[in-house]
Design brief:
Arc Repressor Mutant, subunit A, nine-stranded mixed β-sheet, three-stranded antiparallel β-sheet
């Protein structure tokens, strides 16, 4: 039976939402958290495993120093305090994607705690308090065979332990109150902010579609004016910015309908359905004491020195918000344009393209439209396209010099992405440079005028806007390689 939902405006008339966001970030270390196995994505299932990450008897873990370094840098970027001493713990539960039947994590002694970030949403600044950022290992990956792709109704399930043991940082926020109607947008903006931060720190590839950045969205509703938070649900492993916003919106509407009908919200995990934009029940939500945490006996405490922490602080990049404001001012972009580039993961690409000589407007045009479309069609990030900012700037330089039209530039991108060489090589091999030779252009113009006497007469009668039809036909005849401005001049010379 489908969940009943209220209209979003009706929700806001009676209830105040409280957000709690848990963001899991897979670190881009070469090896796993406690062993030397590769963390490469997409390898043959179960090929990157060993006795340690499989939890075989007698195997002893060793902490990955690079993962600890990344965790400290993340904590510092989140304005957290870095713990001078801490231990790992065993989080016990039964689940088939962890062969040990426990997850090595941090419980009461996280590496980073008590931080904050500020995000801007529709002209309003929200401060999100960070409770903790702790280190742990990822679980394996379950693939359920069946029409739904879910465990319910599956004929069988396959387990790939390659991901088991991959270093994770879990960033846990405190409840975000007072967002009201902006709660879904705040959730999206917060995750986008963290994604941009992780990119700037170069600690993760933050590919949400591959699971290297995942969000668990906690949501509760309380009557307006209440001082007590409502019962929360946790929508697990939401893997896109759009889905974070949609999941929070749906849960607000669903929970409000439950409460308005006199029912009680069940504390549980829920799963988001991308196709329908709805959530569905998972399992009852466990509290911390249900996991029977105890100190990991096989690992020594983590005790970063104050000197090491300060050395790492000196490596932090410009904060994302400050960088966006600086670039927006330098480029003359508004907030919407900057947000779009951030969401695409193209801000750094545009910055590098500008540094290579293109104007900010041109760089934004290519990365934000043409190349974004191609990456979307290929199902990859725009930063994974096999074209560099320098090459995009080179294409734009040829456009600026009149050697290429925008249409020809798109064909140059085709060639570069197909591995045919740099832009200049593609232009030469495909014969794409704009034809500005008056002899060739004049011949094409005369042919088109002769073939369209009615249009020619209109232009002679002073209807100069009709020239556009002739220009288009000349461009088509020249396969887009004509200088449109010169074509217009030749048409008007003959007819005006």
């Amino acid at each position: 039976m489908n969940d009943e939902i209220l209209d979003f405006d009706e929700v806001l008339e009676s209830y105040e939402p409280a957000l709690g966001l848990e963001v899991h970030v897979e670190l881009n270390t070469a090896s796993k958290m406690f062993c030397g196995c590769s963390t490469a994505f997409g390898d043959e299932p179960n090929s990157n495993t060993c006795p340690v990450c499989l939890g075989l008897p007698g195997a002893l873990p060793v902490v990955n120093r690079k993962a600890v370094e990344s965790a400290i840098r993340i904590g510092l970027a989140l304005n957290c305090q870095i713990a001078p001493w801490g231990r790992f713990a065993r989080k016990n539960y039964f689940y088939p994607d962890m062969t040990k039947n426990f997850q090595t994590s941090q419980y009461d002694e996280p590496i980073a705690h008590d931080g904050w970030v500020e995000i801007d949403v529709e002209g309003e600044t929200f401060r999100v308090e960070i409770e903790r950022a702790h280190m742990e290992e990822d679980a394996g990956k379950l693939t359920h065979a069946g029409s739904s792709g879910r465990i319910h109704g599956a004929e069988y399930s396959l387990i790939d332990y390659n991901r088991a043991g991959t270093p994770l940082i879990e960033i846990v926020s405190r409840p975000v109150l007072g967002a009201g109607a902006k709660a879904p947008a705040v959730a999206r903006a917060y995750v986008a902010h963290l994604r941009e931060m992780m990119r700037a720190l170069d600690v993760s590839d933050v590919r949400m579609e591959q699971g290297s950045l995942r969000c668990d969205a906690n949501l509760s509703l309380a009557p307006i004016g209440s001082t007590t938070l409502g019962t929360r649900t946790e929508t697990k492993n939401v893997n896109s910015l759009r889905s974070v916003e949609r999941a929070v919106t749906f849960e607000m509407r669903r929970q409000a309908a439950v409460l308005a009908g006199g029912g009680s919200v069940v504390q549980e995990t829920r799963h988001f359905d991308e196709a329908t934009g709805t959530t569905r029940s998972g399992r009852p939500k466990s509290d911390a004491d249900d996991y029977r945490y105890f100190a990991e006996p096989d690992l020594v405490p983590v005790a970063p020195s104050a000197q090491w922490v300060e050395e790492l602080r000196a490596t932090l990049p410009e904060p994302p918000a400050e960088r966006r404001r600086r670039l927006a001012s330098e480029w003359g972009f508004d907030e919407i344009a900057m947000t779009t580039l951030v969401n695409l993961g193209a801000l750094g690409l545009v910055e590098d393209t500008v540094a290579a000589g293109a104007s900010p407007q041109a760089a934004r045009k290519w990365w934000g439209t043409e190349l974004a479309r191609r990456s979307n069609e290929a199902g990859i990030g725009v930063d994974e396209l096999t074209i560099t900012p320098a090459q995009v700037a080179e294409v734009q330089r040829m456009v600026d010099e009149g050697k290429l039209t925008d249409k020809l530039a798109r064909q140059v991108f085709d060639g570069v992405l197909a591995g045919e060489g740099d832009p200049a090589e593609v232009v030469a091999s495909r014969g794409l440079e704009v034809v500005s030779d008056d002899g060739a252009l004049a011949a094409a113009v005369d042919d088109v005028i002769a073939a369209n006497p009615d249009v020619a007469d209109k232009i002679r009668d002073g209807k100069h806007q009709a020239a556009g039809a002739l220009i288009g036909q000349v461009m088509k005849a020249m396969r887009g390689s004509a200088d449109a401005a010169r074509v217009r001049e030749l048409i008007m010379e003959r007819l005006a």
